[in-house]
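Co-fold these.
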Amino acid sequence: MTGDNAFAELIHEYVGECLPLAEQAADGFLDVERRWNGGLQVDDVAPRLKGLVHTVKGNSAMMGQSAAAEVAHAIEDLFATLLSDASQREPATLDLLLDGANLLIELVRNAASGKTDSARVASWAGAVRALLAGQSAPAAMATGTSSRRAAAEGAIDTVRVDFRRLDALQEIVGEAIIAQSRLRDIQRRMVAHLGFTEETAELDASINAVEKTTQKLEDAVMATRLVPLSGVFGRFARLVRDAAQSTGKQVRLDTVGGDTRLDKAIVDRLGEPLVHLITNAVVHGVEREDVRRSRGKSVEAVIRLSAASVSDGVILTISDDGGGLDADRIAERARALGLEVNSSATDAIYPLIFVPGLSTVEAVSSLAGRGVGLDVVASSLHAMGGSITVESAPGRGTRFILRVPVTLAVVRTLLFEVSDERYAIPLAHVVETVRVEDGDIHEINHRGVVLWRGELLPVVDGAALVGAGAVGGDAARKYTVVVHAGTRRRGVLVDRLLGHRSVVAKGLDPALGRTRLVSGTTIMGDGRVTCILDAQRLVDPLPAHAATALS
Amino acid sequence: MPRKRTDQPAPVATRASLLEFADAVSVTDAPEPAPVAPPLHLVTFVLDREEFGIPIGRVREVLRVGDITRVPEAPLHIRGVTSVRGRILPVVELRTRLGLPGLGEPGMRARIIVVEAHGRVLGLLVDAVNQVVNVPADAVLAPPGEVLSAQTDYVTGIGRLDSRLIILLDLDRALLLAEAA
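Predicted complex below.
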C-alpha cells in the first residue's frame, strides 16, 4: 500500500514535471516547422528544444516509462537529422516530427493510468526508423500519409487551444447572459405596464428559448475549461519531500481525487493556498520524529490531500496526523491581539487562526514563515467564491476543508431586496424561501427563530446583516430565505424576492477591503451593480453588532 | 553625455561671429538664472466649500454619477461601486477621506473623477468639477505648517489663482492612507 502510494506520488510528480515540457516541445516544433517552411533559421530555439526532449527522455527512462523514453529518443534523432540535412525537411517528415511530439504528450499524460497506445507508438517509431535508415522516397511517403492520417484522427480527439481564447469565449457568454437578463427585465416591465398580451407571451416564449440556448452554450464553454487537479497535485510531492527534509521529518503525501475537474482559472488560483497549507502541515502540523515516537505514532507522518466533487463545487481537504491545534494558545494569542474570546468551545476558537496576525508558530521558518498567514489563504479562497474551515483533534491531527466553486464566471443566484438594496445569493446555498407572517418570528435569548419544517431555524434580519438603514422596519420583511453552507442553516429575513438570475460574477476590487460578507459583484440587466453575498458568512455565528441589532 | 561647447563647429570666423560666440560662452558660464518651472495643469473640483486640484495627467475621465451600489463591510471612505462600460469601478467618497462631512445625495453637479493610483483605477466622488486651470509654479505656496497634521500630508501646496485658493492634492498619499484606514 505504502509502496503503491509512493509510486503513485512519483508518477504524479513525473507527469506534473514532464507534461509541460512535452507541451512546450510540441509548441516549439510547430514554430520550427513554420520557420523552415518560411525559409528561416531555427538556431536560436533548437538547443532549448533538444534540452526539453532530452529531459523528458531521461525522466521517462527513470520512471520506467519505456514507450515515452523511446519516442523521445526517436524525436531527438529525427530532429538532429532535420537540423543537419535541410533536404530532409519535407512536409511528411515534419508531420512525423510533430506527430511524435503529440504522441509524447499523450504518453506522458497517460503515464499514471498505464494506458499506452502501443500500436500507435510502434507505427510511429517504425516510420521514423524507416526514414532515418534512408529508405526510398515512396516508402517514406507512405508512412508520411499514414502518420498524417493518424494526426488527423488525433486532431478529432484533442485540439490545443490557447487558454486566453477560452477566457474570451467565456467573456462573450457572460455578455450574452447580461444582455439576455436585460431583455427579461424589459419583458417583465412590459407585463407590469400592459398586463399579459399575446405579444408579451410571445416575447416571453422567445426569451425562454434564448435562455435555454445560452444555458447550453454556457455549459459547453464551461466544460472546455475544466482541467483535472492532478496537474496541481503533481507539484506537491516534491514540495512535501523538500519541506520534510529541511525540517528533519519523515512525511508522506497521499493524494486522492486528482481526477476531479475544475475550471482552469480556479485550479490556477488554488495552487498558492494549497502550497501554503501543505507546507504548514509539514513544518508546523506534524511533530518531530522524537515527539511522534514518544506519542506512540509511526515515525513517518502522513499528510492527506483529497478532492471530491459535490453538488455545488469541489471539496478539498488537507489533513495531517500531527499534534492538532492548541486551543489555549490560539485563545491567548487572540486576546493578545485584542480580540474578544467569550467561548471556550473549540468550534469558536479554531476559526480564529484565520484572523490576520494570529499565528501559533513560535519560530519563523524559511519555508512557511513568509509573512503570509492563514488569513491570506482564507481571503484568496473567499475571492474565488470559496471558503475554508478547520477541524482538529488534539494529538491526532488537523484538517482544513476547502470548498470551491467549479467555475468562477457564471453563478446562478437568487435575487432579493432588503431596505431598498438589492443582493444576490448563490442558488446552490438556498434551501428554500418561505413567506413570513406576523408572529412567525419568535425570540429566544434575544435571537430570532422561526419554526421551519418542524425545526427551530435561527433567523437574522437581512437589513442588519448588510448594515443597511432600516427602511420600513421589521414589518417590511416578508420572506425568509433559508440558506445553508457547510453544516449550518439560517434564515435571512428580506423584503422582496426578485427571482432567479444567472449572473456573471466579478471579483471584488482590493480597494473595498476585507468584505467577507460579499464574495463578488455583478452587473445586472439595468446596468446597476449588485453584491453577491457569501453564503458561508451568512450562516457563520453572528457578529456582535448584527445580533444586538436583532434583539 | 553632454556635448562640450568646444566640440561645436566654429562658424566662419568673422570678428562679429567670434564676439557673439564669446558672449554666448560667457553667458552660459555665468550662474544660471533659476529655471522657470512649467505651470501646473490642474483639474479642479469642489468638496464642501473648498476647491481642490489634481494634475490633469492623473485624470482618466470624468463621469456623471450613476447608480452607486453600497458594498456592505467596505471601509467608510468607500461610497460603493458603479459600472462603467461593463467594468466595475470602486468609488471613493473623497470628502470622508479628507475629513470633511460626507456628501448626502449627490447633486446635479456631482461627478466621479476616474484616476489611477497604486496601479488601480478608482473613482473619486466630488461635489462638482470646475475646470482645467494653469497655475504658475511660483504661485504655489507651501501649506502653512499649523494647518498640517499627520492626516493632512496629502496637501502638497496651495495654488493661488487671482483670488482663488486651490488646495493641491497628492493623490497617491490620499488614497494610500485611504486603504490603510
